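User: Can you help me understand a structure? I only have the sequence.
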Amino acid sequence: MDLIEKMTSSELIFDGKVVHLYRDTVELPDGASAIREIVKHIGAVCVVPLTDDGDVILERQYRYAVGQILTEIPAGKLDYPGEDWTEAALRELREETGAIPRDLYDLGDFYGSPAIMGERIRMFLARGLTFSERHLDEDEFLDVVRMPLGEAVTAVMNGEIPDGKTQCAILRAARMIDEKRI
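Assistant: Let's start by predicting it. Here is the structure, written out as tokens:
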């Protein structure tokens, strides 16, 4: 069965700084029509920064949408459509933590809510870190903390780190390290 839905019309409902909301009409595989409300986003990156002694560099910051302080890995949106994923990851890591990696490994893509949101987050693992000054955005307030990778995995598995991209990237990085693939 062909599972592809074909857009027949698209209406921009909201055009924001970060997100763009559309109401699309699609033709379903059986020929019927349906409405899809979707959020378009240019994409983002996230990085699991791992020190030589096995600590993950994490951030704690207040997330307004959920009304909580969350523990996450460094992350940020692309500056423009088509920006190089690696360059964006290096920039976000340096800005938020001051870390500059010797090695950067691509961990693949993460889609947090693909039923309604087109945001693609490319995940990375950074190793061989040296540190310089942070350069936070003017509206960015966060604390940088360290946690041994094993403890971070346990925190994910215990539900203490609810952020999806952080969960996925930490577990993927830990598994790849355990399997000596990185």
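Now, to help you interpret it: Residues 164-178 form the longest helix (15 residues). The chain has a mean pLDDT of 96. Let me know which part you'd like to focus on.
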